[in-house]
């Protein structure tokens, strides 16, 4: 096999490993596509096309019009929540592009990411999600009994879900069992002390189970035009939510059979003590979710800060002058903005802070009220569930808009492009649109500096003239864009 073919296979292998790793860990289709194109471009390959679907990455290279296309297809593994691995893939990508890692070293590192042990062991992961569940209960003003029950129930449902996953049971059934366990814990609280609001246990567990779904990436793909990937992610989110609904409804039938009242109460009013609850619960949810999703320890305080501020914005704005839908959208907008800033400053993926910031905004109580309403008045219950869906879309749309604005504004305050800024753009598949991954034309003209693109093929840094990018801007967009 010629040396050029060997190197081509090596470059595609690295691009495939990175692309699959990003897709598996929840990155949006635009980010996966842009990252793969960065890798192939820095390797000297220009006529490259990338296609990303829900569970597949396709890369094709055409050397010239008379050559045979070289195409590789790789299926993504099951979805996981491991932000340490997501950060590792991005570090490898930037190290390779900058010339810090040679090709073979980058391939070795990318292959080692999957085989590396998790940052936190399973008991600590379960404890993290348990703390998150207890903190979510505290945000509703729950007492000590309910907080303890929510902590125990959240840890139990995460442990059971992990056990089923290791037995290769589809996650739909794990969601259903988790919903049933949540209602069972609420029934136990009701039997111990009927005076307390035991429904908060169920609401807290709903928040824990829904926080890991790929709704943010799904909405980001949908609003930016990556409809195929968005459709798959939305369907996945819908099916897992249906599993949760089935489990909760089964538990509620059991509660009705024994005459237990686990109806949810209204939102807590604003006061000094409620603000204190929101502060403590926001910190707890941020840290708990961070530990549960393998966030590096040095990033945990920042993740907790984003969750805290997001919870405060939502709580105060909702209670003072704005509807819940607009309040959470505003909080999501702030989360997206600050996530891009922190991601660039700390050199970690933006998705970490986005997911941490939206946790306090998950409409768990609305979902539960809708499920309760379905048993008495179908139209009322459906209305509550529709309201929960509106809030979920509002959260995701606000977070995506915040990232989009920050990624467009921040380059004007720096002398070079931001390596860790997410790529949020309309569909593109070839390097005709590679300016999307290297910075805007207005930024290059304003600074007057050439873009420096590393070339790992020659081992040198090649300065590209801004005029080259002006010519690229004049090209027609690809037909599939």
UniProtKB/TrEMBL annotation:
Query: What UniProt keywords apply to this chain's record, in alphabetical order?
Result: Cell membrane, Membrane, Transmembrane, Transmembrane helix
Q: Reply yes or no: does the keyword Repeat apply.
A: no
Domain Threonine/serine exporter-like N-terminal: where? 13-253
Localization of this protein? Cell membrane
Primary location group? membrane
Whether Transit peptide counts among this entry's keywords is no
User: Membrane topology per the record?
Assistant: Multi-pass membrane protein
Q: Looking at the record's lineage, which domain of life comes first?
A: Bacteria
Give TM segment ranges. 144-165, 172-192, 198-219, 268-292, 299-318, 324-343, 350-371, 391-410
Where does the Threonine/Serine exporter ThrE domain lie?
287-403
Q: Which PANTHER family match?
A: SUCCINATE TRANSPORTER SUBUNIT YJJP-RELATED, UPF0442 PROTEIN YJJB-RELATED
Q: Which family does it belong to?
A: Belongs to the ThrE exporter (TC 2.A.79) family.
Protein name (record): Threonine/serine exporter ThrE family protein
Give the originating organism.
Brachybacterium tyrofermentans
Upper taxonomic lineage: Bacteria, Bacillati, Actinomycetota, Actinomycetes, Micrococcales
């Amino acid at each position: 096999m010629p040396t050029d073919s060997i190197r081509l296979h090596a470059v595609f292998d690295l691009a495939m490993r990175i692309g699959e790793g990003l897709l598996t860990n929840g990155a949006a289709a635009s980010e996966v596509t842009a990252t793969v194109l960065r890798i192939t471009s820095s390797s000297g390959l220009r006529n490259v096309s990338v296609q990303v679907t829900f569970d597949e990455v396709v890369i094709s290279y055409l050397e010239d019009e008379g050559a045979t296309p070289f195409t590789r297809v790789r299926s993504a593994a099951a979805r996981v929540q491991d932000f340490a691995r997501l950060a590792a893939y991005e570090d490898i990508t930037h190290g390779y592009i900058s010339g810090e890692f040679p090709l073979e070293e980058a391939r070795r590192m990318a292959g080692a990411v999957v085989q590396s042990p998790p940052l936190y062991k399973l008991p600590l992961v379960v404890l993290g999600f348990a703390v998150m569940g207890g903190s979510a209960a505290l945000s509703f003003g729950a007492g000590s009994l309910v907080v303890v029950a929510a902590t125990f129930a959240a840890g139990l449902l995460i442990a059971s879900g992990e056990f089923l996953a290791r037995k290769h049971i589809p996650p739909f059934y794990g969601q259903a069992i988790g919903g049933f366990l949540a209602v069972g814990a609420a029934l136990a609280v009701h039997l111990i002390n009927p005076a307390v609001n035991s429904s908060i246990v169920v609401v807290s567990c709903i928040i824990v189970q829904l926080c890991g779904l790929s709704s943010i990436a799904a909405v980001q793909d949908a609003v930016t035009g990556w409809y195929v990937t968005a459709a798959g992610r939305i369907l996945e989110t819908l099916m897992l939510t249906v599993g949760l609904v089935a489990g909760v409804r089964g538990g509620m039938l059991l509660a009705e059979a024994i005459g237990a009242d686990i109806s949810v109460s209204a939102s807590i009013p604003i006061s000094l003590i409620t603000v204190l609850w929101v502060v403590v619960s926001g910190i707890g949810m941020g840290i708990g979710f961070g530990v549960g999703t393998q966030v590096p320890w040095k990033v945990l305080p920042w993740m907790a800060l984003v969750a805290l501020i997001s919870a405060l914005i939502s709580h105060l704005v909702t209670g003072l002058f704005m509807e819940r839908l607009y309040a959470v959208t505003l909080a999501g907008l702030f989360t997206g903005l600050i996530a891009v800033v922190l991601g660039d400053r700390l050199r970690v993926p933006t998705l970490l802070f986005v997911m941490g910031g939206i946790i306090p905004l998950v409409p768990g109580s609305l979902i539960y009220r809708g499920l309760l309403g379905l048993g008495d008045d179908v139209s009322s219950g459906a209305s509550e569930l529709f309201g929960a869906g509106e809030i979920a879309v509002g959260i995701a749309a606000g977070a995506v808009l915040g990232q989009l604005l920050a990624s467009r504004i921040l380059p004007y305050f720096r002398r070079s492009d931001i390596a860790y800024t997410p790529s949020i753009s309309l569909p593109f598949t070839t390097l005709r649109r590679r300016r999307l991954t290297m910075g805007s034309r207005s930024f290059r003209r304003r600074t007057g500096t050439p873009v420096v693109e590393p070339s790992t093929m020659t081992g040198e840094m090649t300065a590209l003239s801004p005029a080259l990018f002006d010519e690229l801007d004049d090209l027609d967009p690809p037909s599939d864009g």
